[in-house]
Structure formats: C-alpha cells, structure tokens
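Shift notes (night). Ran Fumarylacetoacetate hydrolase family protein while the centrifuge was going.
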Amino acid sequence: MRIARFSIDGNVAFGVVEGEPSDPDGPVLDIIKGHPFAEFERSGSKVPLSKVRLLPPVLPNKVVAIGRNYAEHAAELGGDVPDVPVTFFKPSTSVIGPGDPVPYPSFSREVHHEAELAVVIGRMCREVPRERVRDVILGYTCANDITARDVQRAEDQWARAKGFDGSCPIGPWVETAVDPADLAIMCTVNGEQRQLGRTADMVRPVEDLIVHITEAMTLLPGDVVLTGTPAGVGPLNAGDEVAVTIEGIGTLTNKVIKRD
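Came back to this:
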C-alpha cells in the first residue's frame, strides 16, 4: 500500500495511492479517514494524483540518520566502515517533500546528493528486539541526505553540514508492502545517473539499525530513519534537478535553487 500526504484546496489529508502512471487517467488518491498510524478506513472519496500537491509523507519529530553504512561510500570519502554505526540527527526543519525546492546554503560551496532508503516508524517504540523490528515500521520511502561536504569536513559535528533547511527531501509516499532487504537505489542529476546500488550492500541492515537506535532513544510514530547511501555521491548546483528512485517505492524529485 502506498500512503501519501497531500494538500488540495487548502486542506491537508492522507490518501492511499491507487493505479499507475501508465493508467489512462493516471493514479488516484483514495482519501482515508484518520491517519495511517492507527487503524483507518478508506473514505471512497477519490481525487486524481495530478490535481493535488504532494507533501512530505510524514512530519517527523526527528530524523535519525546513519553514516557510512555502505563500504564503497565509506571508501570514497577516505574512511573505513566504523565498528559501530555512525548516528546523527537531521532536524524536522530540514524536511521537505517531493517537488519542493532545495535552497543552496549560503555557507557552503560544495553540496552533495546522497540517495537513501528511509524507514518510517509506525508506532512508539524503545529497546526493540530484532525479531520485532518489522512490527514497529509503517513502511519505507525515498530520501536525499543532502550534505554540505566542505562544512562536514571542517566541523567535527555535522549539525550544520547535514541539518540546514531543505537538506532532507523525503517522498513521494510511504510504501508499506516492500521488503527492504535488496532494493535497487539510484540517484540522477539532470537525468544523468550518479549513484546506483542495492540495499543488500548495506553493512548493517534495517533490523540492526533500529535495534541500535532504540537502545538509546524512543522513536515516535512518523519518525524517520535514514539508512545510509551507496557510492557515487557528488556535487549539486543551483538549477540542478536531482531524483532518487528506489525499486518498489517510487521517485523523489527536487530542484536546487539559489537561496535568496
């Protein structure tokens, strides 16, 4: 099931995406009663996907991100795979949705894309045993962990490098039925392929990451976990269109703009 969050005529709602782009009239949204973090019903009231504005599929209290979770990416940055997961936060103000602009930060001259599988938490959880990880996950979406690489190199803490406004595009929706174990993940910039990998190449799979994170903190419904990026990260410039595509989920597209 694909669950989207959207606005239409000034109203915000969740809906289940039905159909494919190849359908004669395109996909439609069946508006749901309530929200996707509890039992819900489809209203039967449907609206064409083309008539709405897709929003970030969730509004996370926090985004917990994992660094260097693909060996080839760790190597391209000149480092080894760490003995324990590198964990950092991206603030809620960094989150934007599909089609939203990414403002190029004024304090950086080297901004990179990082295509990632994002895990969306479905229920409050802490100290989750590995065998119950799937029970606390609502689903998965695409993410771009946009990074000011020069700032990351210059500062010991990554708060500015990873947390600036617009640095965490997610979307286009949450897919609840996909298995994250071995999915193709790709990033293109202006239609040119930059990254291509598979989630099977993660050093630590989704289950291990959730266990590790929840040993320390409570995750809330709607929180997002970024699982790391494959090799091939590279520069973005104002005017670039960057797209993250994950097999079985969809494509997240954003344009980089010069910040006013």
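The two ends are 39 Å apart (CA to CA). The domain at 2-54 is CATH 2.30.30.370 (SH3 type barrels.).
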